[in-house]
Amino acid sequence: MSSGNFMDKNDVGYVADYFGANGNEIILGKRNQITTINSSFISYNFNKNMALTFRLRHYWSSVKYNEFHSLTQDGLLDDTTYDEFNDLSFNSFNIDMIYRWRFASGSDIFFIWKNAANGVDSEPNSIQYSYGKGAGRLGEFPQSNSFSLKAVYYLDYLSLARK
Q: How many helices (H) and strands (E) in the chain?
């Protein structure tokens, strides 16, 4: 299991192109960004030819803007009249499960299941500024599931060429 928390205070980032009092402006914002990543990985070998791996990952991030500036021709930050709401939060939850069966030397069949649920909130009353609230809303986001079958067969060309 691994976990990571990251915080960027007063990070400067692109917000929007804006036609304001000074004409067309590129708006940059000073923002605080918090990111939390949690993941778990489990692998179980039934025998030398069969294994099951399971990976679970939750990624959550929120951005809260403190102030806005326009980008000058010199690459400096200048005052602006821009003051729109641009905070947001992003939530992503993934599961990957793979069953591998080695049916011959160097030859495998993989059964793969992937589940994903994620969402972006940018409305003032729906943004999750804390990890706990973000994790609590995971069930509200749309999910997608995919199932795959992959076969890999090792073909020894030299043994075929001798015949």
A: 2, 7
Place of tokens 């804390």: 130
Q: How many CB atoms lie within 10 A of CB 34?
A: 19
**Left, alpha or beta for 107 (phi > 0: left; psi -120 to 50: alpha)?**
beta
Q: What angle do CA 125, 118, 86 make, to 5 degrees?
A: 40
d(CA 157, CA 163): 11
Residue 23 burial (CB count, 10 A) = 8
pLDDT, tens digit, 9 for 90 and up, residues 14-33: 998 887 666 788 999 999 99
pLDDT in tens, 126-156: 888 888 888 888 888 889 999 999 999 998 8
**Confidence (pTM):** 0.78
Cβ distance 70 to 80 under 8 Å?
yes
The residue whose two tokens read 């793979």 is: 98
Q: Which residues, 6+ apart, have CB-to-CB distance to 13 below 8 Å?
A: 28, 29, 31, 63
